[in-house]
UniProtKB/TrEMBL annotation:
Comp. bias (Low complexity): 72-87
PANTHER family, per database record: TRNA (ADENINE(58)-N(1))-METHYLTRANSFERASE, TRNA (ADENINE(58)-N(1))-METHYLTRANSFERASE, MITOCHONDRIAL
Keyword terms, alphabetized: Methyltransferase, S-adenosyl-L-methionine, Transferase, tRNA processing
Domain named tRNA (adenine(58)-N(1))-methyltransferase catalytic subunit TRM61 C-terminal: residues: 257-385
Compositional bias ranges of the Polar residues kind: 123-134, 157-166
Protein name (Swiss-Prot/TrEMBL): tRNA (adenine(58)-N(1))-methyltransferase
GO MF, one example: tRNA (adenine(58)-N1)-methyltransferase activity
Organism in which the protein naturally occurs: Scophthalmus maximus
Length: 394
């Protein structure tokens, strides 16, 4: 048999095992139990409160009713401690005499702001408790002024709603024109932040831009400012913008492999091409490097581009002319005509290079070392000859 006896905040356990006892010992143990039960003490249990030991069943019933009332009530939310700012943390490690007046002033301001925030939270909690304590307040008393406010909002919206003439296409910025037929444009479609469709096309009247998400008539695109979203026949928003030189080089018709923009930019940095330079290029290809060199040297410079194959020479010339036409429609001014395309072999083009000097040389050949003896005499002292090897694996 086990008996629990609360004694001074501790729980004492006495195990009484009796096989045969006398009456005197029974009386002695009974007196001890009576004295212990008369003492009132508090036992801390595995709960959030304190449970008192009562002397009678009446007190137990009262305590159960009181605990039910406490659980039915919702205690106000406990205030959370405010996190310390870096200034308070560092200044708290230093003695008060070592702090400057500016630091002390900042600490006082932070404490005042924290107290104001705490007061606001307490007032808000009290107001919410008061509102919850008066459920009989009718909820529809404030319906009338809300409806009036909504009516006023609608009336103000109706008065400020722009007319159809004001909702036309926004005016373009100075120096920028609307899209016209003949320009090179790029259409892009994004789904969930990812590009699902991109196409470069030439704007023409009477045609359509087709895609898996519907079509857009070119007539609807003409006259719009660049960078607008237009909906297809299926309601998909498509971004229409002008093609940059990088876009044109990547999506233009090509014969051989091109020098990609990242590689071309690296070569231009190595050669230090600036406006007014004269550059020699061997291996026109599809005309990608020729276009980048043309923009780098500007109207004061020039580029001499040589190509052995007839089809590559023709493709590079057509791509260069197509970009110049689109640029003229876009800006209203001509792209510099500073590239001279020749169908010739650099190894045997000594007569073509006679009397000319170059600030830099760009070679895009399979065997560039074969032409170095021809190129070096026409290269300025200290200039750079950059070689592009597309199939280099080391």
């Amino acid at each position: 048999m086990a008996v629990q006896m609360p004694l001074g905040g501790f729980l004492c356990m006495h195990r009484l095992v009796r096989m045969c006892t006398s009456s005197q010992r029974h009386l002695r143990h009974r007196d001890v139990l009576v004295r212990l039960t008369k003492r009132r003490s508090e036992i801390r249990t595995f709960s959030t409160g304190l449970v008192k030991c009562k002397e009678s069943e009446h007190e137990d019933s009262d305590s159960s009713g009181l605990s039910a009332e406490l659980t039915s009530r919702q205690a106000p939310p406990a205030r959370r401690s405010r996190p310390l700012s870096p200034l308070e943390r560092i200044s708290g490690l230093l003695p008060r005499d070592a702090l400057s007046p500016e630091v002390m002033q900042l600490r006082e301001q932070n404490q005042q702001e924290a107290e104001e925030d705490a007061n606001v939270q307490e007032s808000f909690a009290q107001s919410t408790q008061e509102q919850s304590g008066h459920p009989e307040t009718p909820a529809g008393t404030e319906a009338t002024p809300k409806e009036d406010e909504s009516d006023n909002d609608h009336s103000s919206d109706a008065t400020t709603e722009p007319s159809t003439s004001e909702r036309l296409i926004p005016a373009t910025l100075p120096g920028e024109s609307l899209l016209v037929p003949g320009e090179l444009l790029v259409a892009e479609l994004y789904k969930k932040g990812r590009m699902e469709y991109r196409k470069m096309f030439n704007l023409q009247t009477g045609t359509r831009l087709h895609s898996s998400w519907g079509f857009i008539p070119h007539d609807d695109i003409a006259g719009q400012p660049a960078g607008q979203f237009l909906n297809t026949s299926l309601g998909a928003p498509v971004l229409i913008r002008r093609a940059s030189l990088e876009d044109y080089v990547l999506y233009m018709k090509r014969g051989p492999a091109i020098a990609y923009p990242k590689d071309a930019a690296r070569m231009l940095m190595m050669m230090d091409v600036t406006e007014g330079d004269r550059v020699l290029e061997s291996g026109s290809g599809s005309g990608a490097m020729s276009l980048f060199l043309s923009r780098a040297v500007g109207s004061k410079g020039s580029v001499l581009s040589l190509e052995v194959r007839e089809d590559h020479h023709r493709r590079a010339t057509l791509n260069y002319k197509r970009w110049r036409t689109s640029w003229n429609l876009r800006r209203g001014e001509e792209w510099p005509d500073n590239v001279q395309f020749h169908k010739a072999d650099l190894c045997t083009a000594s007569s073509l290079l006679a009397g000319q000097g170059f600030h830099s040389v760009a070679l895009d050949l399979i065997n560039p070392h074969l032409v170095l003896t021809t190129v070096i005499p026409h290269l300025h002292p200290g200039a750079v000859c950059a070689v592009y090897l597309a199939k280099c694996v080391y």
